Structure formats: C-alpha cells, structure tokens
Amino acid sequence: MSTKNLTSKEALKKMTALVDDIKTAMLLTDLKKQPISAIPMSTKEVDEEGDIWFLSGLKSGHNSNIVKNPQVQLLYSDPSGMEFISIYGVASVITDREKLKRLYSSSDDAWFEGEDDPNLSALKFTPKEAYYWDTKQNKYISLFKMGLAAATGKKADVGEKGKLKL
Known about the structure:
Layout: E1 2-3, E2 6-7, H1 8-22, E3 24-29, E4 37-42, E5 45-46, E6 52-57, H2 61-68, E7 71-78, E8 83-94, H3 97-103, E9 120-134, H4 139-152, E10 160-165
C-alpha cells in the first residue's frame, strides 16, 4: 500500500469523497475518559468548507460530552469497499432552525417528531486532521493481489493510505 499525504483542497476532496461513499460514522466523544463514548451517526452533508453535519438529540449524552469538550473523532468504515477514514476535529451543537430544516428529511422521523421537534439539534464537525486507507478497487482484487504477493514475495500495491491535513 503506497502512502500519499495530502493537504488543503486535495485533502478536502479526498475526505469528502470517502465520507460521501461511506455515510455512517462512529462519533467518539469524551476522548479522555475510558471507555470512550461512541455512537453511530448518519452524515447529512459535507459543506463547501469541509464541515461534516449530523442531526442529533439536543439532550443526548454525546451532545453533553461535546459541550464539555468539543474535541471528537469520527471513524468511517466500509470493509466491503475497503475504504476507511479516521477524522479528528472539533464539534459544536447547533440549534439554528433554518439549518435544521435544511438538513432534515423524512427518514429522520424515526428519531424525531419532525423538523420542529424541540429535541432536534445539529452537530457541526470541523475536521482538523485525518488518516485514510483506500484500496480504490474491490476487496476481491485486493485479496488476489495480496495472495499473489504472498506467493511471489513481492509487495502488492493494493491502494493508498495517508494523512490529510485539513
């Protein structure tokens, strides 16, 4: 696996592509406490500045953790597509009604009482740094290349990994 570290616009483009492909992240809050608090979150959008947006319960434990300490980690994982990204940054709880209405969709009715639910909030995650692993091919091709490498003793180029400076 080759290493490719990216910065600025190139890093933002790579992060956005992976987040858009995977969609669901584990949000890790209260990073100094063991065990770390983790909850699955569905990405609503990645805006033009690179901020990642989620909807969240205003009175939730992870929102409380973010208010106490905004440093959080997002882990996106797609084992079937062999795409992974870990993103470190800061989060904030947003209650702007216009933003909530723009992010809300009917699928969110499973957790909220509509876009005017008083418990509805958004999380704005601003990434600072990320690390990714991306094979750029399906897992069967990657496994084949790894098997071939094991048989020949040569390294297999099964994709790329690297740091993203955002």
